[in-house]
Amino acid sequence: MSKSKTIEEGKLVVSLLSLVQFCQRKAEIDSGSAFIDFYEKVCEAINNYARQKPSRYFAEKFLEMPKLTIDEIDTMLALENRSNQNYGSDVGGLAMLIVSLLTLVGLIKDKAKYSTEDKLNDIVAITNNLLYVLQHPGFEELYYHRKQ
After folding, report:
1. Whether 83 contacts 71, CB under 8 Å
2. Structure confidence at residue 53 as a pLDDT band (50, 70, 90)
3. What is the DSSP letter of 66?
4. Beta-carbon count within 10 A of 47 CB
5. Taking the alpha carbons of 1, 34, 55, 8 in that order, is the dihedral positive or negative?
6. Are 132 and 139 within 8 A, CB to CB?
7. How many Cα neighbours within 13 Å face the side chain of 146?
8. Sorting pLDDT into bands at 50, 70 and 90, what band is 100?
9. N or C: which end of the chain has fewer CB within 10 A?
């Protein structure tokens, strides 16, 4: 992560909303590297905001953000693209379908504990919590007061 920069709340809100859109696939993800680059910048903004404010809640949520790799996102995108294709009835289409199913089975076995989809869902939940705190001043103080 780079040096701490001043983060405006309005820009942070836009970044968080955009991240939710990407994770819910309401906005198109071009590639794993593009998504990871954006995700890392949003995480950096959350961390910088936590230091700037200072905000214990944002610092804790920053640490909860799941780690993702370019390969995880690329694999997810490839599987989504394959499931959206019309394979037809030729042998090549059947072979692609078999490869897709075998890839899916392998991914399920490898990632059964914490899948990419689970990570994206967690990102959405954490991001929505951060948005709520930004939109409701005083909530963070109330949250920690009740937690004691």
Report:
1. no
2. very high
3. P
4. 19
5. positive
6. yes
7. 6
8. low
9. C
Alpha helices in 1-86, H assignment, sequence order: 9-23, 32-52, 56-64, 70-84
Amino acid residing at 82? R
- Both tokens of 13, joined, read 């809100």
The whole-angstrom separation of Cα 129 and Cα 98 is: 40
Which tokens in the block code for residue 132? 């709520």
Non-local CB neighbours of 116 within 8 Å, separated by 6+ positions: 68, 72, 73, 75, 76
Q: What is the mean pLDDT of residues 61-72?
A: 96
51: tokens are 């230091």
**Longest Cα pair distance anywhere in the chain, in angstroms?**
64
